Amino acid sequence: VQLVESGGGLVQPGGSLRLSCAASGFTFSSYGMSWYRQAPGKERELVASISNSGGSTIYADSVKGRFTISRDNAKNTVYLQMNSLQPEDTAVYYCACRRKGTWGQGTQVTVSS
Questions:
Q1: Contacts of 57 (CB under 8 A, 6+ apart)
Q2: 3-state DSSP assignment of residue 98
């Protein structure tokens, strides 16, 4: 079972990034997926989750209206589209399948001018 994130980087405030998480080693379409983030000195927090079919999503209040989680079960990939990024969004972002107890290695997102 493996999750590999990509798409992080440095972006200016107000900018956008799209994170991707490629899954392998399990039946991706059977599991809900989540994105978490951890900023320096802070605890890891849930950013967004999506059901196995993609029909249900939840978001942290801090990202509602700015971030969108989606998935492509044909590609075994989950995405996080992040718009209107702010410095407080700076963190390492992790993809996770909590039911499988599996986490990706994380991808750094830095929002700075």
A1: 48, 49, 50, 51, 69
A2: helix
Maximum pairwise Cα distance, the chain: 41
Residue 55's Cβ-side half-sphere holds a number of Cα atoms within 13 Å equal to 3
| C-beta separation of 81 from 18 below 8 A | yes
Contacts of 27 (CB under 8 A, 6+ apart): none
**pLDDT values of the chain reduced to their tens digit, one per residue, 113 residues:** 999 999 999 999 999 999 999 999 999 999 999 999 999 999 999 999 999 999 999 999 999 999 999 999 999 999 999 999 999 999 999 999 999 999 999 999 999 99
Our CA angle for 31, 96, 80, nearest 5°, is: 95
Identify whether the C-beta of residue 33 lies closer than 8 Å to the C-beta of residue 22.
Answer: no
